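Quick board copy: two proteins, each given as sequence then tokens.
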Amino acid sequence: MVMNTKIVYLIRHAESDENRRQQSFYRSFGRIGKLALPTKEDVAASVELLDVKAQIDSDVSDVGRRQIEQVGSKLRKDNFVAEKGIQLVAHSPLKRARQTAEGMLGCVTSRPS
């Protein structure tokens, strides 16, 4: 019997706007807990959490775009997809996952009908 071994690479999506808003929220409460006022930027980002639809399917943040570019550049330089024989890229249908796969690996799966 011939064994056919497959290697699975897992990549988490880059920082999303949702992640950014949540971090602002946590920083705001951390500062309040220390009897300090949160920054204006953190309060504004925290208020964005009220837009529930944006939390469900958010884009990558500016930091996330830089993360994608940095890792994607390294993967392209190393010719990762070809060198590792990547045959399938699967990801969630959420925008942040699609943006990460496209930017890092240069491909995305088709959208479900």
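And the next:
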Amino acid sequence: ATIVCEVVAMAKGQLEKDRQELLQQQQQKKVKSHSAPMHKWNEAMVQQWLEENDFSFAKSLFAEKRVSGKILRVLDKDTMKDMGLTSFDATCVIGSRDAHLLESGSDA
């Protein structure tokens, strides 16, 4: 039983490390083709941003909810989870969104 607990603890530690690495990678990615401020993005531009940032899994959920840039800017983790994203996926999308907003300067 002790060995099993140690293995589970090691696996959890590795998962957390992998999660942190993925978050860091997503936050470092730069959006390739969005020169307009996020609040001016239409639904198609949000879909393109999701694709460019390896969030293809979220495209259908965001399309179904008609997420524009204005909406993307204010989506929180709980709302994304209500839309159907996992907690981890929502955290990744939010991290990339926030990194984009920081990189692009004020997006008011």
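Board note added afterward: The CA atoms of residues 96 and 102 lie 10 Å apart.
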